[in-house]
Amino acid sequence: MAKEEPPSTSKDLQELQRKLSLLIASVQSNSKVVSFMKSPVGQYLDRHPFLTLTLLVFVALSAVPVGFFLLLVVLTSLAAFVGVILLEGLVISVGGLALLCVLCGLGFVSLVMSGTIMVSYMVISSLINYWFSLRLLPQHNSSGDCPLAVKSAHIEGLYQE
C-alpha cells in the first residue's frame, strides 16, 4: 500500500498544480488586475516579491482583528443608541411624573385659593352690608324710632323709589 500511494499523490499534486495555474492565469487576465499591474504601485510590487508577500500576509492576518474592531464599533453604537433611547424614555417618564405632581399641586392650590377668595368675598360683602346698615341706623335713630322699624321703613322706601 505504501508503494501505491506516491503515484496517486503525484497525480493529485499535478492536478492541484494545474488548477492553481488556471486560477493564476484567470486572475492575471482580469482587466482590473492588468490595470493595477500597469500602475506604478503594481510595477513596484512586481519587482519586490518579498514585500508583496509580506503585505499580503499582513492584510490577511489583520482582517480578523479589524473585523472584530468593526463589530465592536457597530455593537457599541447600537448599545449607545438603545441606551440613549432608554435614557430619553427615562427622562421623559420622570419629567412627566414631575409635571403630573406639579399640576396636581397647582390644582389643589387653586382649589384652596378659590375657596379662600369666595369665603373672603362672602365675609367682606356681609361685613360691608352690615357696616352700611349700622351707618344708616344712627341717622334714622335720631327720630326716636326703633332701629328695626327704621330699617324696615328705609328698605320700604328704597322699593318705592
Can you give a write-up of this model?
This is Lipid droplet assembly factor 1. Its main location: endoplasmic reticulum. It comes from Bos indicus x Bos taurus. Keywords: Endoplasmic reticulum, Lipid droplet, Membrane, Transmembrane, Transmembrane helix. The chain crosses the membrane at residues 50-74, 81-109, 115-132. By secondary structure, this protein is mostly helical. It has one domain (21-133). The protein is 91% helix and 0% strand. The longest helix has 93 residues, at 49-141. It is rod-shaped and about 140 Å long. The N and C termini lie far apart (144 Å).
How big is the Rg? Answer: 52 Å
Give the number of helices: 5
Distance between the termini: 144 Å
Round the mean pLDDT to the nearest integer and report it.
Answer: 83
DSSP summary, beta strand count:
0
Q: What fraction, in percent, of the residue positions are helical?
A: over 70%
Structural class: mainly alpha
Uncertain residue segments: none
Q: Beta-strand percentage? A: under 5%
Keywords: Endoplasmic reticulum, Lipid droplet, Membrane, Transmembrane, Transmembrane helix
GO biological process, one term: lipid droplet formation
Main location: endoplasmic reticulum
Protein name: Lipid droplet assembly factor 1
